[in-house]
Design a protein that fits this description.
The complex is a heterodimer of chains A (about 425) and B (about 60).
Chain A lengths: L24 E3 L5 E3 L4 E3 L52 E5 L5 E2 L5 E5 L6 E7 L11 E8 L9 E9 L16 E9 L3 E10 L3 E10 L6 E7 L13 E11 L1 H4 L7 E2 L20 E11 L11 H9 L2 E5 L7 E9 L2 E7 L9 E5 L5 E5 L2 E5 L4 E5 L3 E6 L10 E6 L6 E4 L3
Antiparallel strand pairs in A: 1-2, 2-3, 4-7, 5-6, 6-9, 7-8, 8-16, 9-14, 10-13, 10-16, 11-12, 11-14, 12-15, 17-26, 18-19, 18-25, 19-24, 20-26, 21-22, 21-25, 23-24
Chain B lengths: L1 E9 L4 E9 L4 E6 L5 H11 L14
Antiparallel strand pairs in B: 1-2, 2-3
Classes of the chains: A mainly beta (about 425), B alpha+beta (about 60).
């Protein structure tokens, strides 16, 4: 074999240099080859690293992508199991005051404030905040502000923010099989209260199982990213339906009967293990605040960057569980069409923007003439909708049959007369 | 906290097809379908199991 040693091979004219002829294989000692007949460049395994790929550097020329090894489509789009993890959607309002013993409720979309167990005097305001970790791409966070303190927590009391996941969205985790996937929970958190907090996953189907861990806020009033990996459960699968199969709970207050046990991997739902190891009582001062955003739960043993989605996609995903047709403060607007079924019945109909998880409840504000049905040149006031004809997952028909009077067959539109009038649909978990 | 629960009779045949729920110290009113997957329906069943009584109005004529 002859050998040519040169510093540069340059075209005799133009800008193209051709190596070999059709059918030749050009071999590079490191293992890379170029097949001149097909134009195929082959690189040895492991020769291209993440560091060599710039953003947007890959162009796919075709309609399909095949993933090798243990990679799955879940590691791509929609890898975040949590909906509204960036706290940007809040259809119910942006501030929820007086949350305490008897009024556990959803706040920002998909995130619920809950107090369980013995009564407690602590109260909070949960709100959508613009305080976010700098330079991470977030614009909103969920803020919990203690407004009434309780320094003596009852042993059975537990307070937390939680979210819930449908079982049919969890099947790819392959729980209940030897291939059960680990999941990794990551989130940004901030509080003036440093110390150890509990967080738990609870599988919520026919048998409840608990997996609890702790995280530590190290520096007061400083955003910190926390990452916790949960090994998959090989013993029990999630039901493949629209039910509540997985709960994620961030504990803020936990009495001794909820925190005196040990953190545990998947096992029986032991109350003392839920917030095991938690030392913080967020209710011990009205100066206390706690923030969270960037919540992501994904398959695998490491946390990827937070998956940001377009606002229309985020809103549609939230509307599967809650849909605000009319909000407070949107008074003096027509928002619904209907007709007099008889002289004393109005029927109204609305389509939902996305199919809801279950047949929803109609949630509404009620008061004297909060709504007016305008038909045939006059208005007919009523306090609330009191009559449901059909509530399906895709649409609803409802009305009033106690306060209206008109002419059967006449069509009309419903007007929001009061600033406190609202009409929502709830199909939350 | 739930204050009252009243059966709703509706649809084309005046069958029991939902509940109307009012709350203590609130102007919120819910109309709840008979869907076991609906968490408001589940809350009503727990409220009944706790010994509370549903108001059962006679069917209303609507056709």
């Amino acid at each position: 074999m002859s050998k040519i040693e040169v510093d540069t091979i340059a075209p005799q004219s133009g800008t193209t240099v051709t190596l070999g002829e059709a059918g030749d294989t050009i071999t590079v000692p490191t293992g890379a080859t170029f097949d001149a007949s097909s134009g195929t460049l082959t690189l040895p395994d492991g020769s291209v690293t993440n560091a060599k790929l710039a953003n947007s550097a890959i162009t796919l020329n075709g309609n399909s992508v095949s993933l090798g090894g243990s990679a799955s489509i879940a590691s791509g789009m929609f890898r975040n199991i949590i909906i509204n993890g960036d706290m940007s959607i809040s259809q119910r309002g942006t501030s929820f005051t007086g949350l305490g013993d008897t009024n556990s409720q959803y706040t920002l979309d998909r995130f619920k404030w809950v107090e369980e167990g013995a009564t407690d005097t602590a109260e909070y305001t949960v709100s959508q905040s613009t305080d976010v970790p700098t330079g991470q791409g977030f614009s909103k966070s969920l803020k919990i502000d203690c407004t009434t303190a309780d320094t003596s927590v009852d042993a059975n009391n537990i307070q937390y923010i939680g979210t819930a996941i449908e079982g049919q969205n969890l099947q790819y985790l392959k729980y209940g099989t030897s291939n059960a996937e680990s999941t990794t929970l990551s989130f940004w958190v901030r509080s003036n209260k440093t110390g150890t907090y509990g967080v738990a996953l609870i599988s919520n189907d026919s048998t409840e199982y608990l997996y609890s861990q702790t995280y530590t806020i190290n520096s007061a009033d400083t955003w910190e990213k926390k990452t916790l990996t949960f090994v998959g459960d090989t013993s029990a699968n999630f039901d493949d339906d629209n039910g509540n199969s997985l709960l994620i709970q961030w504990y803020l207050v936990a009495g001794t009967n909820k925190s005196s046990g040990s953190s545990q991997t998947w096992g029986s739902y032991t109350q003392a293990n839920r917030a095991a190891g938690q030392t913080v009582n967020l209710a011990d001062s009205t100066s206390n605040e706690w923030y969270i955003t960037g919540v992501q739960l994904e398959a695998g043993t490491s946390a990827s960057d937070f998956e940001f989605l377009p606002v229309d996609v985020k809103l549609a995903r939230c509307q599967r569980y809650y849909y605000a047709l009319l909000n407070t403060g949107e008074n003096d607007n027509y928002f619904l069409s209907g007709y007099y079924y008889t002289g004393s019945f109005i029927y109204c109909h609305t389509e939902f923007p996305t199919q809801m998880r279950a047949s929803p409840s109609l949630v509404q504000g009620s008061g004297t003439d909060y709504y007016t049905f305008y038909s045939n040149g006059s208005g007919d006031g009523f306090d609330s909708f009191n009559y449901n004809i059909t509530f399906l997952t895709r649409n609803a028909t409802f009305g009033n049959n106690s306060q209206v009077s008109g002419t059967g067959g006449n069509a009309g539109r419903v007007y929001s007369t009061n600033t406190n009038s609202y009409v929502h649909f709830n199909a939350e978990l | 906290m739930i204050d009252t629960v009243t059966k709703i009779y509706g649809g084309m045949n005046n069958e029991h097809n939902g509940y109307k729920v009012t709350y203590v110290n609130s102007n919120k009113i819910l109309l709840v379908p008979l869907d076991e997957a609906n968490t408001d329906y589940q809350a009503i069943q727990e409220w009944i199991a706790d010994g509370n009584t549903v108001i059962d109005n006679p069917p209303q004529e609507n056709n």
